[in-house]
Amino acid sequence: MSEWITNTITSLGYLGIGLLMFLENLFPPIPSELIMPLAGFTVAKGRMELAPVILAGVIGTILGALPWYYVGKLVGEDNLKRLADKYGKWISVSSRDIEKADNWFDKHGQKAVLFCRLVPGVRTLISLPAGISGMPLVPFLIYSTIGTALWVSFLTLAGYALGDNYEIVEEYLGPVSKIVFVLLIVAFVVWVVNKRKKKH
Fold this sequence. Notes:
Blueprint: H1 2-12, H2 14-26, H3 32-44, H4 50-87, H5 95-116, H6 127-132, H7 137-162, H8 167-199
């Protein structure tokens, strides 16, 4: 993976960075924690400019967030409620739970989108509930862009500062993505177990 990312950036330059960050949002196993630090290292070597590198990363990420947002829109709250009423008993999710989650997102959705863009493991996933809850596109893009710009800038500058050791960023942040993902699954399982206990 590392070699493919390096070759893409070397051969396609800024376009390669944008393309990789776009794909990273569609296929989370592709790590932004490696793409942007490598791009920062390339800037440190004098082969690229800092501002266009960050801009390419941000544009690629935002374009990659849109398919998930529109999948959420396509699914929609009403369809999700119907599915929950039909199959939700297996995981203790009802249409009322969906409604509660949607109400929460209506109140806190902008903050959620902004901050989740800074969290490895949920950066990509946040686009889905934003679409499902019907969050308007313009605020979604604004808050996604702010959060993404901070994340991409951090990764790029880390790679710039670390130079030849840019891969350290991925070594430290890569496991964080997995930990966050596991914690989300554990939290969901605990919630399901508690719900079932209350029912009994």
